[in-house]
Amino acid sequence: MATKHEQIIGYITKLQIGEKISVRSIAKALLVSEGTAYRAIKEAENQGLVSTIERVGTIRIEKKRKENIEKLTYAEVVNIVEGQVLGGRKGLHKTLNRFVIGAMKLDAMMRYVEAGNLLIVGNRDQVHKVGLEAGTAVLITGGFDTSSEVIKLADQLELPIISTSYDTFTVAAMINRAIYDQLIKKEIVLVDDILIPIVNTFYLTMQNTVEKWHDLNKKTGHSRYPVIDAQMKVQGMVAAKDVLGASKSTPIEKVMTSNPIVVKEQTSIATVAHLLVWEGIELLPVIDQASKLIGVVSRQDVLKALQMVQRQPHVGETIEEIVTSRIEDRSSGDRLSFICEIIPQMTNQLGSISYGVMTTIVTEVGRQVLRKHKKGDLVVEDITLYFIKPVQIESTLHILPKVLEIGRKHGKIDVELYHEEVIVGKAIMRAQLIE
């Protein structure tokens, strides 16, 4: 039977898009405490099912598919610009296609305004009205209000009219930043993107015996299987070492490893890679919000995904990508050498290279050096870093790495950083290799 928390999430999922909800209404409808209702609404917000807006409340929104993640809803815009909704509250769940800045005469402006847009404009009541009639929502900058006629029209058309105290340039920059951040999120590969779904997953139940493991092993060639109970919840894992020497009539629950490590579908593959290496396991069960098995992810799937991510072009650049793109390999023969130009984005408020950037340089150089010796990827175990001298903006760092030790699963590297032949930093990095 589903828990109260699961029942509330299910209830919210079935609500119509745009419907308003509250802690009190949920508690009353499902006969639960307000504390339980509040926690479930917060979980629904984390899942992208609802959006909470100050002075408006919580509304049901459409959950974004990954391919549409860069598109914002009007509800998200209200939160981004810290705005106030003047009218058209029923349309807050709608998605905007693009935003248009209305900085020209009305006739010239309307050539660029289409239904589904967001028109950013100042205190021009006539523009507000014409924009709404064209099917676009309106964002008024500078903290200005609008006429009661326009508010009435917004309510009638269910198109939001929002007011913010920020100026037009700041608002455009804030929305642009939000879209850029969403693009970076879109590029992060999650377990959901690579998991083997439940229909293609082989698993055992608590009622099975070791004989069933042998049958599945002959049929699939796999040696590891999750063990589930009657509610599809993961209770354990069974591998070849667990059944070794056990009779075929032994119940699976007697030989399985209880409380196995599991991951959720929204876990990043970087986290999964770390778990696989750190725990030395080959297969991870994937569970949903209700802790039910929805599939598995293997070491091979994770390795393929990591290689695919490294080969893909990126739309939204993170700070790490900016840093790594500036590192050039100047190695010749057995002499390992790299250079890196220090650009403004890599510096702190004093104009020197930031500690985080120097750590990233050491990590990336170490990764490139280890990949010359071993295929696959790595997980950094620890770094000892000495910041000897500051490095100014627009300087060029010369990086000289040296492999101290490399084994089948571990590698240790010494990295020295020079500027104008003077040592400015030194590091020792240890990493575990993923094969």
Automatic annotation (TrEMBL):
Signal peptide: none annotated. PROSITE patterns: CBS. Residues 195-254, 256-318 form the CBS domain. Keywords: CBS domain. It comes from the Bacteria. The keyword Protease does not apply. Gene3D superfamilies: CBS-domain, Hotdog Thioesterase, HprK N-terminal domain-like, Winged helix-like DNA-binding domain superfamily/Winged helix DNA-binding domain. PANTHER family: CBS DOMAIN-CONTAINING PROTEIN, CBS DOMAIN-CONTAINING PROTEIN CBSX3, MITOCHONDRIAL. This is CBS domain-containing protein. It comes from Halalkalibacter suaedae. The lineage of its organism: Bacteria, Bacillati, Bacillota, Bacilli, Bacillales.
